[in-house]
């Protein structure tokens, strides 16, 4: 379009809903609108968004667009200024909001807990297998004194033996359990409590 009157006539067709006429105006002014938006934007992406919004608004509000000196360019540039400014304000509000958010604590790596659980499961199985290898007498004294927390006196009464005998049996039973558990699983730690063999 070389003459201003031509664009005014084209825009009259746009007002009536002529999409082809709008395409002519778009092709004529896209570069100038994009260049203006780029000067006002932080990135080419923002400028592209601004330009797209300007032409969308021009089509949507085509009956309200002002033709100045036979051209809609001035209206497009003013709209680009407003859209870019609104975009910057919106981005600034977003940055302020994000800066006020309390950073979330990083979640612990579940792999560590899973590996520990697997280790405990393996140790538990090894201890149960080792416990089953013990003599009935060892199982009884460990079952009473360690697993179920009976006192030496109560265990002696139940087993019908002196307290000193329970004490010595218990010591030997713990040693045999540790040895049997190490034979089954050399990496097992000797338990301080046998609650795992319940």
Radius of gyration: 42 Å
Roughly what fraction of the amino acids lie in strands?
A: under 5%
Helix-strand string: HHHHHHHH
- What is the 3D form? rod-shaped
Q: How does the helix and strand content classify structurally?
A: mainly alpha
Number of strands: 0
List the total number of helices.
8
What is the helix content?
Answer: over 70%
Mean pLDDT over the full residue set: 84
Distance N terminus to C terminus?
92 Å
Largest sheet: none
Ranges where pLDDT stays below 50 over 5 or more residues in a row are none
Q: Describe it for me?
A:
It is a single chain. This protein has 198 residues and is an all-alpha fold. Helix content is 73%, strand content 0%. The protein is built from eight helices and no strands. Helix 5 crosses helix 8 (163-184).
Please describe the structure with a list of short key phrases separated by commas or semicolons.
mainly alpha; rod-shaped; 198 residues; 8 helices
In a few lines, what is going on in this structure?
With 198 residues, the chain is mainly α.
């Amino acid at each position: 379009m070389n003459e201003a009157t031509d664009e005014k006539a084209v825009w009259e067709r746009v007002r009536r809903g002529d999409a082809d006429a709008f395409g002519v105006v778009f092709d004529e002014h896209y570069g100038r609108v994009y260049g203006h938006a780029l000067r006002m934007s932080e990135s080419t992406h923002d400028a592209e968004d601004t330009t797209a919004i300007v032409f969308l608004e021009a089509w949507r509000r085509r009956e309200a667009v002002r033709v100045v000196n036979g051209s809609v360019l001035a209206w497009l540039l003013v709209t680009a200024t407003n859209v870019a400014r609104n975009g910057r304000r919106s981005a600034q509000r977003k940055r302020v909001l994000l800066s006020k958010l309390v950073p979330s604590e990083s979640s612990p790596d579940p792999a560590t807990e899973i590996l520990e659980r697997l280790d405990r499961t393996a140790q538990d199985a090894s201890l149960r297998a080792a416990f089953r290898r013990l003599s009935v007498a060892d199982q009884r004294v460990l079952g009473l004194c360690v697993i179920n927390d009976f006192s030496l006196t109560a265990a002696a009464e139940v087993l019908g033996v002196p307290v000193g005998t329970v004490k010595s049996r218990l010591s030997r039973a713990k040693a045999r359990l540790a040895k049997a558990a190490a034979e089954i699983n050399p990496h097992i730690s000797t338990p301080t409590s046998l609650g795992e063999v319940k």
